[in-house]
């Protein structure tokens, strides 16, 4: 749009410019809505591209959306200036009201009590109320604990209240500060050195080594909680499992080696369970099968996991039943279809898609209802799909790309179809994959953990914060409450 000085004087030309601007805005709005729909669709996808590629695609789309919305905002200002240079942007009715739990600050604007035309007294006839969302900058304050002393004039006895317990004795760290540091590091993925820079803007100096020591002390104080969380999770009858690499700084040579974070999720809400969801992380310096075997030594039930060979020994005695992930099975076929599309790959993808469509219809239904629908609808589909796959396999060249894809499914067919025989099982392992997203986000910010003990601390904090997220709990409020109650007798000096 032209600047104020370049605007023509005649009404017809102004109307033409306005129509052109409105048409441009309408096109931009349609593009924004299209991108929103595409983003929502990608977020709902439980299969398809590898998660890293999906994340990049989502980032690109969201960046496009931000850029379009930013351009729309700039166009709003230019349009408002052109229509009335002396006024601000026109007020629009908000699409949704602000959350009711927010504190309200009223700023009342009243006209003069005397009528400017006739001089009579004005009377109130109503009011219009609009709300804007404001942000109050976080404020640091020093909390002083004053313990007064009293003396008895008769016997000389002196009485003084004891010092209230603190999570870290003889420390300047209040539970609210500790909670903020932990949430910033493990939920918002802000490394400690950046946190010290941020608080320095408020005139507060926090030593990086001191804050690191606080993090270690808090993790140790929370150890009983993480152990209780692990026990609760392993008492479930269905657990989702997955793992992801995490770079660990190798001492001495300034290089990194690859550690592993294992995740285990208990969440039956898709089968109408009212039991709280939970997630537990564990760290190991490598990816040997002994680690998940140790983690799941006391578990009995359905294990939803990928085809990692380290799980195999867990299934030998029959106490743990494997439920394979159709996301992975579909992904193999999709990769072939993307490179060399054919009628066979398209047909396989359509049949698998029908299975997911049935799952969408019964999500949140009770276990017995899910099993009934799967027996009636999904099981016949699986029989047809297996027949189709085996017939196609017999016609393929041994080294054809589709052979590996279909063999992946056939080799795990019993585990892939287990969800039809048990209503609490899921068709995919997306719950575990979603729980690992915090690790992927963290890797982009802190790049590596400083040691094996740093990996263990990350696992403990991810467990607590991830469980908060699953249950809709404010992690900062939770950790502040926990820190307030974690009082130790050991005197930690030098803090």
What would you note in describing this structure?
- This protein has 16 helices and 7 strands.
- The chain has 495 residues and is of the alpha/beta class.
- The strands form 2 sheets. A 5-stranded mixed sheet has the order 5-4-3-6-7.
- A hairpin with a 6-residue loop joins strand 3 and strand 4.
- The relative contact order is 0.11.
Give a quick summary of the entry.
The protein has helices at 11-44, 51-83, 175-186, 192-200, 208-221, 223-234, 290-295, 326-339, 343-362, 367-395, 401-410, 413-416, 430-435, 437-446, 452-470, 475-485, and strands spanning 150-151, 158-159, 238-249, 256-266, 278-284, 301-304, 320-323. It is of the alpha/beta class. It has a domain at 4-82.
Name a few traits of the molecule.
495 residues; alpha/beta; two-stranded antiparallel sheet; 16 helices; globular
Structural topology:
Blueprint: H1 11-44, H2 51-83, E1 150-151, E2 158-159, H3 175-186, H4 192-200, H5 208-221, H6 223-234, E3 238-249, E4 256-266, E5 278-284, H7 290-295, E6 301-304, E7 320-323, H8 326-339, H9 343-362, H10 367-395, H11 401-410, H12 413-416, H13 430-435, H14 437-446, H15 452-470, H16 475-485
Parallel strand pairs: 3-6, 6-7
Antiparallel strand pairs: 1-2, 3-4, 4-5
């Amino acid at each position: 749009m032209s600047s104020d000085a370049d605007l023509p004087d005649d009404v017809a030309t102004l109307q033409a410019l306005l129509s052109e601007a409105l048409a441009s805005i309408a096109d931009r709005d349609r593009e924004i809505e299209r991108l929103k729909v595409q983003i929502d669709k990608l977020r709902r996808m439980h299969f398809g591209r590898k998660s890293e590629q999906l994340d990049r695609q989502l980032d690109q789309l969201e960046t496009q959306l931000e850029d379009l919305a930013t351009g729309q905002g700039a166009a709003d200002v230019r349009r408002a200036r052109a229509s009335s240079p002396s006024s601000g942007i026109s007020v629009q009715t908000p699409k949704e009201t602000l959350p009711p739990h927010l504190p309200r600050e009223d700023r009342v604007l009243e006209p003069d009590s005397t009528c400017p035309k006739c001089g009579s007294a004005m009377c109130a006839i109503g009011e219009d109320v609009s709300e804007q969302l404001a942000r109050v900058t976080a404020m640091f304050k020093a909390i002083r604990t004053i313990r007064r002393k009293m003396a008895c004039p008769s016997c000389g006895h002196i009485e003084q209240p004891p010092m209230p317990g603190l999570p870290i004795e003889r420390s300047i760290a209040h539970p609210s500060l500790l909670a903020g540091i932990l949430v910033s590091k493990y939920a918002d993925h802000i490394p400690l050195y950046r946190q010290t820079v941020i608080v320095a803007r408020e005139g507060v100096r926090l030593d990086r080594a001191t804050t690191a020591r606080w993090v270690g002390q808090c993790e140790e104080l929370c150890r009983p909680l993480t152990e209780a969380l692990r026990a609760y999770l392993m008492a479930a009858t269905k657990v989702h499992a997955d793992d992801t690499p995490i770079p660990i700084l190798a001492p001495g040579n300034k290089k990194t080696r690859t550690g592993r974070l294992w995740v285990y999720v208990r969440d039956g809400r898709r089968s109408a369970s009212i039991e709280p969801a939970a997630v537990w992380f564990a760290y190991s310096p490598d990816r040997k099968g002994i680690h998940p075997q140790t983690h799941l030594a006391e578990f009995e039930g359905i294990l939803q996991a990928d085809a990692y060979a380290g799980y195999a020994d867990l299934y030998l005695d029959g106490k743990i039943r494997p439920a394979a992930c159709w996301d992975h099975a579909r992904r193999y076929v999709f990769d072939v279809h993307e490179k060399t599309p054919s009628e066979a790959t398209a047909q396989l993808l359509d049949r698998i898609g029908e299975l997911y469509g049935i799952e969408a219809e019964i999500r949140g239904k009770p276990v017995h209802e899910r099993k009934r629908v799967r027996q009636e609808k999904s099981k016949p589909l699986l029989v047809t799909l297996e027949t189709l796959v085996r017939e196609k396999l017999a016609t393929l060249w041994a080294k054809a790309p589709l052979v590996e894809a279909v063999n992946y499914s056939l080799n795990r067919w019993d585990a892939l179809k287990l969800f039809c025989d048990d209503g609490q099982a899921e068709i995919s392992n997306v719950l575990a994959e979603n729980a690992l997203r915090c690790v992927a986000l963290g890797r982009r910010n802190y790049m590596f953990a400083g040691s094996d003990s740093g990996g263990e601390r990350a696992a403990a904090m991810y467990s607590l914060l991830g469980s908060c997220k699953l249950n809709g709990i404010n992690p900062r409020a939770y950790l502040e409450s926990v820190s307030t109650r974690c009082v130790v007798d050991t005197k930690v000096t030098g803090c």
